[in-house]
Design a protein that fits this description.
Oligomer: single chain
Largest sheet: 10 strands, mixed
Number of helices: 11
Bound molecules: guanosine-5'-diphosphate, 6-O-phosphoryl inosine monophosphate, magnesium ion
Strand content: 15-25%
Distance between the termini: 17 Å
Length: 422
């Protein structure tokens, strides 16, 4: 492996972190390339559960370098918390975490605005309220504060004063909220500088040097294809590009550097927050998926909406991301269902369509096929041939529908619950 990209293919929470932890065995450097602490990435290692929001999910493997890329929006307080927590658990981080000097910082006014905008909006998105949208908006407006800016304390003081004038006007006059105190912001930036000063580098050139030196790089996406600001179910999306373009933009690597793109794909579908979800099951089956799959948000604790596998979504996600393989996760959650539904195509007003129509998704009706289920608990199966025949048939059926090889089948949260297809 030279450079492997790991991308969520649905609406996030596909089990990306579990697979990143798995692929880290064969990697030297792991890079988060977009999103921020809206991500909740769960790794279960040796029976212990870690949820990462910013630190790349390969961090539990000794000696690996972890990078927060330039495409990430970084909440300094969250990063410090994660570094401290890992330290308490006995994982040294300070000497193997790098932060892009071009990563934008999420500051208290971003979070306050995220909350205020959601509260006052008639059409809520159901954001994680981590300040993601307002921070990316500042990046585009060219008014953002970047990690590298904290190295110049004097210049920073003046810039924060100017930014706060605008932000507090918005908060107070537009939304009737409390203004953000400048001392609070400066204290956060000071703590960040104290903790992270030595980690802040030009990660783009670091990564290119590493590739030249034959280092193996793993790019960790957050969220998923259908939450992409360009390709997803706009406006019910996040404010970044979780898809392949985001992996390049958010690291400075180019398309010729990429060897493989693996799409992490849940054996059913979930979504947190508002927005269309054609295969959602609001009845008993959906509830059963939620309970069996532990489908509650890793960041906000909100119950995830649950439903059936959606072939059109996956076909489009595979095509747009150039997937070379799929890791098929949470197959164990389907044990005990007599019948398993799969949406194989969509109809709009009685007419069949053969694509995933992003912004018009609320208009589609899924067309289902039903497959026979299985009763056995499969979480201890380590080889594909150990799975019940109906489970094998389900995997093969999905693989055929999508037209991309399923390389891994995941049957549990733990590292060891992973079947590598031969
Ligand atoms: P991510 O955001 O894509 O990294 O996924 P999350 O961590 O938010 O959510 C996935 C959840 O499913 C976590 O609780 C994982 O520990 C768990 N998980 C991952 N793979 C499997 C699997 O194959 N089976 C089961 N039962 N749980 C899994
Ligand atoms: P991981 O990386 C699932 C959803 C939110 C909301 C929308 C916009 O763990 O898969 P935002 O706070 O980004 O402005 O919210 O995006 N969302 C996620 N859903 N998994 C995630 O990350 C998500 N990150 C954001 O619920 O609907
Ligand atoms: Mg998650």
């Amino acid at each position: 492996m030279g450079c492997l990209v790991v991308i969520g293919t649905q609406w996030g929470d596909e089990g990306k972190a579990k697979m990143i932890d798995f692929y880290t065995r064969d990697a030297d450097i792991i890079v988060r390339y977009q999103g921020g602490a809206n991500a909740g990435h769960t790794v279960v290692a040796n029976g212990k559960k870690f949820i990462f929001h910013l630190v790349p999910s390969g961090i539990l493997h000794e000696g690996r370098i972890c990078v927060v890329g330039n495409g990430v929006v970084l909440d300094p307080l969250q990063l410090i918390d994660e570094i401290n927590l890992l330290g308490k658990e006995g994982y040294s981080v300070l000497d193997r975490l790098l932060i892009s000097d071009a990563a934008h910082l999420i500051l208290p006014y971003h979070k306050a605005l995220d909350g205020a905008m959601e509260e006052s909006s008639a059409k809520k998105i159901g954001t994680t309220q981590r300040g993601i949208g307002p921070c990316y908006a500042d990046k585009c407006l060219r008014t953002g504060i970047r990690a590298g800016d904290v190295l110049d304390r004097n210049g920073l003081d003046e810039r924060i004063s100017r930014v706060l004038e605008m932000k507090n006007m918005q908060l107070e006059k537009l939304y009737g909220k409390k203004p953000v105190d400048k001392n609070e912001v400066m204290d956060i930036l000071d703590s960040f500088r104290a903790k992270a000063e030595k980690m802040i580098v030009n990660t783009q050139s670091y990564l290119h040097r590493a590739l030249k030196n034959k280092k193996r790089i793993l790019l960790e996406g957050a969220q998923g294809y259908a939450l992409d600001i360009d390709h997803g179910t706009y406006p019910f999306v996040t404010s970044s590009n979780p898809t392949i373009g985001g992996a390049l933009m958010g690291t400075g690597l180019n398309s010729f550097d990429i060897d493989k793109v693996v799409g992490i794909t849940k054996a059913y579908v979930t979504r947190v927050g508002e927005g269309p979800f054609p295969t959602e099951d609001v009845g008993d089956d959906g509830e059963r998926l939620r309970v069996n799959g532990g489908e509650f948000g890793s960041t906000t604790g909100r119950p995830r909406r649950c439903g059936w596998f959606d072939v059109e979504l996956l076909k489009q996600s595979a095509m747009m991301n150039g997937l070379t393989g799929i890791a098929f996760t949470k197959l164990d959650v389907l044990s005990g269902f007599k019948k398993i539904k799969v949406a194989v195509s969509y109809e709009i007003k009685g007419k069949k369509i053969d694509y995933f129509p992003g912004a018009y998704l609320h208009e589609v009706k899924p067309v289902y096929e039903e497959l026979d289920g299985w009763d056995e608990n499969i979480s201890d199966c380590r080889e594909f041939r150990d799975l019940p025949s109906n489970a094998r048939d389900y995997v093969s059926y999905i693989e055929k529908q999508i037209g991309v090889p399923i390389e891994i089948v995941s049957t549990g949260a733990g590292r060891e619950k992973t079947i590598v297809m031969k």
